[in-house]
Fold:
Amino acid sequence: MAFDRAIKIAPSILSADFANFGAEIRAIEDQGCDWVHVDVMDGHFVPNLTFGPAMCKAIRPHIRTVMDVHLMIAPVDPYIEAYAEAGADVITAHLEAGPHIHRTLQAIRGAGAKAGVALTPATPASAIAHLADMIDLVCVMTVNPGFGGQKFIHSQIDKVRTLREFIGDRPIHIEIDGGVTPTTAPLVSAAGADVLVAGSSVFSGGSVSDPDIYGRNIATLRRAAQTA
Ligand code: DX5
Ligand code: ZN
Structure:
């Protein structure tokens, strides 16, 4: 995974057909997405339940791009090894998920994956001030984690700007997760984000038998972000 700041569109398979992940992933990759975002929820840290490591392992052979695993679980440390073994390229843990995010990030890199830290809307940018050397990605949640299809929280744009300034030349991606649409994409890319997670706005209207719609949705988001 070479580092660059080009806009990357990362569809969240939370909005895909759960009975057909292999075909859904092939469809979004054929239609030009850059990463595949996998939302892992535990019904405890967030009020929703999704996939475990076995599921991630099963879909891994279908992913040719980057498997971006977003862990919304607490505790997180006992499961890192399993998600790394399942083939995650990036593993992102929440700063709010436990008392020792520093240890968690060490464990992620130690397991051979790129390390991401996610911040919920109430957590300030300054929370990562002492983590810069141990992260490859910071994920700014622009909705409260737990569900797709929520409304973008505009107060997070300032946070993205502050993070972008703080990051400077460091090879750290800024990922936006939640409520990304052709209207909000340019706002976050102008503020400094480079990875845009999008569930509803990629999958809505399309299907594996009508994948061109996915392609159009991805291209529209990318164009909107690039024209910022
Ligand atoms: C929310 C998840 C997001 C979500 C994005 O907890 O982390 O990845 O699926 O969905 P949309 O793009 O529909 O807001
Ligand atoms: Zn996510």
User: Anything to note?
Assistant: The chain has a mean pLDDT of 98. The chain is about 30% helix and 20% strand. Helices lie at 21-30, 53-59, 80-85, 101-110, 156-167, 185-191, 200-203, 212-226. The radius of gyration is 16 Å.
